[in-house]
UniProtKB/TrEMBL annotation:
Highest taxon above the source species: Bacteria
Domain annotation AMP-dependent ligase C-terminal: ranges: 335-431
Catalytic reaction(s) noted: 2-phenylacetate + ATP + CoA = phenylacetyl-CoA + AMP + diphosphate
Protein family: Belongs to the phenylacetyl-CoA ligase family.
Protein name as it appears in the record: Phenylacetate-coenzyme A ligase
One example of a Gene Ontology biological process annotation: phenylacetate catabolic process
Record-linked PANTHER family: PHENYLACETATE-COENZYME A LIGASE
GO molecular function: nucleotide binding; phenylacetate-CoA ligase activity
Oligomer and partners: Monomer.
Pathway: Aromatic compound metabolism; phenylacetate degradation
């Protein structure tokens, strides 16, 4: 099923014409209403009227997270404050929160995009949607909530936490769709099992999982354990929240990006030039319809690539392959670049390991060292030490062979790694403390 048939299947030519029209209006609007952009356009020597084709976007200035911080909290608004009906913020790990504002139309568009997303995931108005993303300043909870209501589904606003109770509500209310981070879905699953509730016996059939990087191996593990389809959803608060892109259940191959509302580019983070078609780089997003806080060429730091080949679901929106990770999360271990999700893929191909892991980075002299801590399952845990040691050696060898990184592997007992109710903490960086 497709929620907005006319828009989501627009021939690319028409879609690009729509994008160009919106891009031109956007440039006029930010130039007239946001001092920061007027200055940035002037410094780059570009005027709104210079934008004549979509490719001309490359002459426009970038926006970085730091720009949002510098104008904290409302300095990048393009409308009078009275027109702003909602504020969200992402805390991040360092520095000030980044704030985003929404007009009523922004909230409506977001709800529509989330309804499209849930439809792409295979949900419909008859579904019971359990929203376990956090409600509050984080965009996950309210984003999924408004979309589920727009869809006409029954929405259960559980938010994060109280995991044991959640498991019972999931069973008692007969939820068919679960929205949360992939890592939290596992926590919920395990807690439910302990309480004698097996997801496989429930009507649950779809997971809408995102807000953190996860691998295809993790998806397979989740799908097999829970007996559901696990769908990857992408988004970020600066741009909107969840629903910037989502996989379709038909292909489960890359997240369709909402191209009528956003313009996507992939750049080389060093040269800041566009990469070649289909090449990997940093995703850059321009909001085409946002009223309250439109952003021009926002540098997401998310590393991915785009595919424009037709999809069997019929949508014409481009697809973004799984985000490997954020460039800020990329580890450089003795000169080799590695994303946590690449290590995750290797771990999950090994029998007896669980999807609970952490990467500890330390510095010895001038060299960074990496220790991979991963929980084993109960069965393996009861095995003799020698067998476990052999396994550690084997994983170490695989990591070296496939990723070129030397890592120390430590198997730890079940539940040794801290659980999170939202985004999992995969990297423990002890270098700067
Ligand atoms: O995480 C919005 C969201 C909520 C998305 C619920 C999906 C579901 P932020 O807290 O601002 O917003 O974090 C955004 O999370 O730049 C990516 O690095 C990462 N991220 C989000 N979705 C995915 C995904 C929300 N599916 C940052 N795969 C983004 C990989 C993701 N990374």
């Amino acid at each position: 099923m497709i929620f907005d048939m006319d828009i989501e299947t627009l021939p690319r030519e028409d879609l690009e014409a729509l994008q160009l029209k919106r891009l031109k209006t956007l440039c006029e609007r930010v130039y007239a209403n946001v001092a920061f952009y007027r200055r940035a356009f002037d410094e780059a020597g570009v005027k709104p009227a210079d934008i004549k084709s979509l490719a001309d976007v490359r002459y426009l200035p970038f926006t970085e997270k730091q720009d949002l911080r510098n104008h904290y909290p409302f300095g990048l608004f393009a409308v009078p404050k009275d027109n702003v009906v909602r504020i969200h913020a992402s805390s991040g790990t360092t520095g000030k929160a980044t704030v985003s504002g929404y007009t009523q139309r922004d909230v409506n568009n977001w709800a529509t995009m989330m309804a499209r997303s849930l439809t792409a995931a295979g949900a419909g108005r008859r579904d019971i949607i359990h929203v376990a993303y956090g409600y509050g300043l984080f965009t996950g909870g309210l984003g999924a909530h408004y979309g589920a209501e727009r869809l006409g589904a029954t929405t259960i606003p559980v938010s994060g936490g109280g995991t044991r109770r959640q498991a019972m509500l999931l069973r008692d209310f007969g939820a068919t769709v679960l929205c949360c981070t992939p890592s939290y879905s596992l926590v919920l699953y395990e807690t439910a099992l302990e309480a004698g509730i097996d997801f496989k016996d429930l009507p649950l059939r779809i997971g809408v999982f995102g807000a953190e990087p996860w691998s295809d191996e993790m998806r397979r593990d989740i799908e097999a354990k829970m007996g559901i389809k696990a769908i990857d959803i992408y988004g970020l608060s600066e741009i909107m929240g969840p629903g910037v892109g989502i996989e379709c259940v038909e292909a489960q191959h890359g997240a369709h990006l909402q191209e009528d509302h956003f313009l996507f580019e992939v750049i080389d983070p060093e040269t800041k030039e566009p990469v070649g078609p289909g090449e990997v780089g940093e995703l850059v997003i321009t909001t085409l319809t946002k009223e309250a806080q439109p952003l021009i060429r926002y540098r997401t730091r998310d590393v991915t690539r785009l595919e424009y080949t037709p999809c069997k679901c019929g949508r014409t929106f481009a697809r973004m392959v799984r985000v490997q990770g954020r460039s800020d999360d990329m580890l450089i271990i003795r000169g080799v670049n590695v994303f946590p999700s690449q290590i995750e893929s290797i771990l999950l191909e090994t029998e007896g390991l669980t999807p609970h892991y952490q990467l500890v980075v330390e510095r010895e002299g001038n060299l960074d060292t990496l220790t991979v801590q991963v929980e084993v399952d109960e069965k393996l845990f009861s095995d003799e030490i020698r067998k476990l040691q052999r396994l550690e050696g084997k994983i170490q060898k695989n990591i070296k062979e496939f990723l070129g990184v030397t890592a120390l592997v430590k198997l730890v007992e079940p539940r040794a790694i801290q659980r999170s109710e939202g985004k999992a903490k995969r990297i423990v960086d002890l270098r700067h403390v």
